[in-house]
Design a protein that fits this description.
Length: about 300
C-alpha cells in the first residue's frame, strides 16, 4: 500500500497530528476518520497512533494511500487510454470526444472508466475510478483521475480551493461581441427538461471568462476559463450570449456528420503543496472542419486569462 509522509518541523510543534495531516498533507477530516479503521492507516514514526497526539519536530507522519478493492460497478476492459501525465497521486487522460466517462445504460463497457480500470488490471493493481474534474461525453481533452482515496481527498480539496485551473477551447456560432469578456450569470435546472440548465437568477453562481482566438465571422474559436464548474456551464453561457457551441444539440443546433459538441479541455493545472502539474492539449483535428487551425497565432493558448 502506498504511503504519504510529512516530517514535522519545529514550527509545527503544539499542533495535533490530525491538524498537521489536514494542513500539510491535505487529508480531509472524512479521510482521517476512514483511516482510523484501516490497519496501519495512520502512523507516527512507523507506529499506529490516534489523530490527537502531538508530534515532535523530526517525527514522520505517515498516512496510508487508501487503495481499496476495484470498483465493482465498472467492468475492466482493454481499450485505448491516452495518458498525458501520471504519478503516484493521479493519472491525467486526454479523452476523445464522444466517449463517456462513466458507464451508463447502453455504455456499460466502452467508457473511459472501463478502459482505465482495464489498464490497472493489466498492471495487477486494484483501482477505484474517481474523476476529479467532469467532462461531458461530447467534450474531449484533459481529465484528472485520482489513484487513491488519499489523493482523491487531496485533489478534491485543491479543486474546491481553486488550485486546479481548467481552461477550454471551443467553437461557437458567429463572432462574440465584445471578442473578450466575462459571463457572470447564475445557472439552475430548466424545469421539465431533464438535465438541461438555464440562466436562473435564483440558481448557483457561475462565472466564465472567454477570449476569441480566431474567427471567420461564421464560426469562432474561443479560449475559456471556468471560475466555477456548473453542469453545462460553458454551453449555457455561450448560448445565452447568442453564440451556442458548434454541434450543441441541446442548446444550439445538431450538425449532420458532426456527432459531438465542439468543446475541448485544453489546459489543466494542478497545484498541490509539493508539486505543480500543468498540461496543454491542442484543439482536436475535427475543429479544422470549421476553421483553419493553422492560422491560430502562436502562443494563443498561453498566458493567463483574467
Amino acid at each position: 500500500m502506498e504511503r504519504f509522509e510529512y516530517t514535522v518541523t519545529p514550527a509545527d510543534e503544539g499542533l495535533t497530528l490530525g491538524r498537521l495531516a489536514r494542513q500539510r498533507l491535505g487529508a480531509s477530516a472524512a479521510l482521517l476518520r476512514q483511516l482510523k479503521w484501516v490497519e496501519d492507516g495512520i502512523w507516527l514514526d512507523g507506529q499506529p497512533v490516534f489523530v490527537n497526539v502531538l508530534p515532535r519536530a523530526g517525527q514522520v507522519i505517515s498516512l496510508a494511500g487508501g487503495r481499496e478493492k476495484s470498483s465493482e460497478n465498472i467492468l475492466p476492459q482493454q481499450g485505448p487510454v491516452e495518458i498525458a501525465y501520471e504519478d503516484e497521486l493521479m493519472l491525467i487522460a486526454d479523452k476523445p470526444g464522444g466517449q463517456p466517462v462513466h458507464p451508463s445504460r447502453g455504455h456499460e463497457k466502452d467508457t473511459l472508466a472501463n478502459y482505465v480500470a482495464g489498464l490497472f488490471e493489466s498492471r495487477g493493481q486494484p483501482f477505484v475510478f474517481r474523476a476529479i474534474n467532469r467532462l461531458d461525453r461530447g467534450t474531449s481533452g484533459l481529465l484528472c483521475i485520482a489513484k487513491t482515496k488519499y489523493s482523491a481527498s487531496l485533489l478534491g480539496k485543491a479543486l474546491h480551493e481553486g488550485r486546479i485551473r481548467r481552461e477550454y477551447c471551443a467553437l461557437c456560432v458567429g463572432r462574440p461581441q465584445p471578442p473578450d469578456g466575462t459571463v457572470d450569470l447564475p445557472l439552475g435546472h430548466r424545469e421539465g427538461y431533464g438535465i438541461q440548465r438555464c440562466v436562473d437568477p435564483n440558481g448557483q453562481p457561475a462565472v466564465t471568462h472567454y477570449r476569441t482566438l480566431l474567427s471567420d465571422g461564421r464560426v469562432s474559436l474561443l479560449r475559456l476559463r471556468l471560475e466555477t464548474g456548473r453542469t453545462h456551464q460553458i454551453r449555457v453561457h455561450m448560448a445565452h450570449l447568442g453564440h451556442p457551441l458548434v454541434g450543441d444539440f441541446m442548446y444550439g443546433e445538431e450538425l449532420p456528420g458532426f456527432d459531438r459538441v465542439a468543446l475541448h479541455s485544453a489546459l489543466l493545472r494542478v497545484e498541490l503543496p509539493d508539486r505543480t502539474v500543468e498540461l496543454h492539449s491542442p484543439p482536436p483535428p475535427c475543429f479544422g472542419r470549421f476553421l483553419d487551425l493553422s492560422a491560430l497565432p502562436e502562443g494563443a493558448m498561453q498566458g493567463d486569462l483574467p
